[in-house]
Design a protein that fits this description.
The protein has two domains: about 120 residues, NAD(P)-binding Rossmann-like Domain (Rossmann fold, 3-Layer(aba) Sandwich), CATH 3.40.50.720; about 100 residues, UDP-galactose 4-epimerase, domain 1, CATH 3.90.25. The longest helix is centred in the middle third of the chain and has 13 residues. It is an alpha/beta fold and about 270 residues long. The chain is built from eleven helices and eleven strands. It is elongated and about 55 Å long. It has a seven-stranded parallel β-sheet, with helices on both faces. The chain has a two-stranded parallel sheet with strand order 7-11. Strands 8-10 form a two-stranded antiparallel sheet. Helix 1 crosses helix 6, helix 7 packs parallel to helix 11 and helix 8 crosses helix 9.
């Protein structure tokens, strides 16, 4: 069974490749626009290409049975049409439900006529790096909604789920809403980062406009969208589920991620 991982030098795609290999996959093809950056292990077939440029993709899909499809909205209709024509049997996509901007990916994949599995993921644990500069400089962390809560998931856990689904049967037609194993407020996440650092971090609530300016250096034009998204969870906190552990056998807590990522905040 030949498996194609798209965006294979991206944050999640590269981890999907690693987890496929760790699980014993022997026929993995990696699609990357910059394969020289990834240092793929021996045995991985590397094809240069980019989901956003469909003309680069025919070679990548040739002979492929299953695909991990990274979220690129602009060309998804043409990409899944190409996959179907190439004889792909199953697409595992990273997308989102009707309340997100990523739902068109799920709809396009379903419309392809191929077997599909949707992975819906909420906020990444890695987004906490947005606090890193503040934490490096002070024991006070400014945030607009420290009481807002969700169940952050690591990119590595998403990749482990994707690899498991790609390598096993029984997942066709399934939608997996992926969360971390715990619902935490933003204040609790900040304090857990502090615990990993051996420091006591205090949280200071700031106005929305100040928060947007605070996150703009890291997030650019998405800062306003991000801050308003945080605010929407104050009244409706995301509830953690056990899907990741049920599929893969384990799930990474935010505290575990913080401990493993502590150098990002020093």
């Amino acid at each position: 069974m030949k498996i194609l991982v798209t965006a294979a030098t991206g944050n999640i795609g590269r981890k999907v490749v690693d987890h496929l290999l760790a699980a014993g996959a022997e026929d993995v093809r990696a699609l990357s626009n910059h394969p020289e950056r990834a240092a793929f292990p021996d045995g991985v077939e590397v094809v240069r290409g980019y989901l956003g440029k469909v003309s680069t993709l025919p070679e990548a899909f040739e002979g492929v049975d299953r695909v991990y499809l990274a979220p690129v909205l602009e060309t998804v209709e043409a990409v899944v049409e190409l996959a179907a024509k190439a004889g792909v049997q199953h697409i595992v996509d990273l997308s989102g439900d009707e309340n997100t901007d990523w739902q068109p990916i799920a709809r396009a994949v379903e419309g392809s006529g191929l077997a599909w599995t949707h992975l819906y993921a909420g906020e990444f644990s890695e987004n906490a790096v947005g606090w890193a500069e503040q934490i490096r400089q002070s024991d006070q962390v400014r945030d607009p909604f420290p009481e807002a809560a969700n169940a952050p998931i690591t990119m590595d856990d998403i990749a482990r789920v994707a690899a498991t689904v790609l390598l096993s049967d029984g997942h066709a037609g399934r939608i997996y809403e992926l969360t971390g194993p715990q619902t935490l407020t933003r204040g609790e996440k900040i304090r857990q980062i502090g615990a990993a650092l051996g420091r006591d971090l205090d949280v200071v609530t700031i106005p929305r406009a100040d928060a947007i300016r605070l996150f703009e250096p890291e997030m650019g034009e998405y800062a306003e969208w991000y801050v308003d998204g945080i605010g929407s969870t104050v009244a409706h906190p995301q509830q953690a589920n056990t899907v990741v552990a049920e599929i893969t056998g384990t799930a990474t807590t935010f505290a575990q991620w913080a401990a493993a990522s502590v150098e990002l905040f020093r």
